[in-house]
């Protein structure tokens, strides 16, 4: 996906009705020794980092349970859409663990330190509406009869992104992601570097021409 220039947006959904991702298989985990567990969690953390680093926007469609590593997967995405009936939580402390695939870092960056600590310390599960109220998800929708309400809303959101200039969207994502990790002056410099890369693109010229000619732009990602 990273190297496929035709990909504009990636939507993560589950084929299992009622479950987005239930997290690690603890029965499988129980058979591992300490070294195997450490290796497994490191690989999982690396996977989440790879997802977070995808150059195109990513959307998690949470139509059911997103628990433990399942919520960490959703947090690794840029945007999250949840059915109001979905259940989410970093429940690791209820199993004698702590989030190990990015949850302790991405949740506070998403909802703030105080709320993240409360959710992680208690292992509490919340529904889609509660998640929306605290900013954990971008949108919440009533679940439909097919059980894919969040996925359908995610597709609508993806279709809002698709017409926009692909390279500009990629640079916007990069500027936000890198800028969030540094002070604002450094962030401004990062934005400037990303903007400079966008200036010579054909899409920028097309956007200006379309504005002058009062027509929709035809972006090609170049």
TrEMBL record:
Family matches, as InterPro entries: ClpP/crotonase-like_dom_sf, Enoyl-CoA_hyd/isom_CS, Enoyl-CoA_hydra/iso, Enoyl-CoA_hydra_C
Stored Gene3D superfamilies: 2-enoyl-CoA Hydratase, Chain A, domain 1, Lyase 2-enoyl-coa Hydratase, Chain A, domain 2
Ranges in a coiled coil: none
Any Gene Ontology CC annotation: mitochondrion
GO molecular function: enoyl-CoA hydratase activity
Alphabetized UniProt keyword annotations: Lyase
GO biological process, alphabetically ordered: fatty acid beta-oxidation
CDD domains given in the database record: crotonase-like
A Pfam family this chain is assigned to: ECH_1
Family the entry assigns: Belongs to the enoyl-CoA hydratase/isomerase family.
Database matches in PANTHER family: ENOYL-COA HYDRATASE DOMAIN-CONTAINING PROTEIN 2, MITOCHONDRIAL, ENOYL-COA HYDRATASE-RELATED
Protein's recorded name: ECHD2 protein
Organism: Eurystomus gularis
Gene expressing this chain: Echdc2
